[in-house]
Amino acid sequence: MSTLIAAGKTLQLDKHGFLQNLEDWTPEVATVLAAQEGMVLTAAHWEIIELLRSFYTEFQLSPATRPLVKYAAARLGPAKGNSQHLNLLFKGTPAKLAAKLAGLPKPTNCL
What we know:
The protein has helices spanning 27-36, 43-59, 65-76, 83-89, 94-101; strands at 2-6, 9-13. With 111 residues, the protein is mainly alpha-helical. It is globular. InterPro entries: DsrC-like_C, DsrC-like_dom_sf, DsrC-like_N, DsrC/TusE.
């Protein structure tokens, strides 16, 4: 287990770098997590992060890529709700990386 320092607090991370306590998440925490991934969050990233947090509130789980794409398409339209758009924003494993930045648990089917 490791830690993350954000907003003057030391936060616990699991072995995959996800927040241990969902209540610890703030936009500043997301920004620090993104920096660790070599990313600077843009408005497009925040749109997906907020969408993921809404998904989690509604379903109590972090979506895998297919449900995320479907949910994004329904909420944001087909231009943003597709694998290509999500892969451009969250390189490699969009559901996993976006969930981490959103302060959510790792999706169960992600390696």
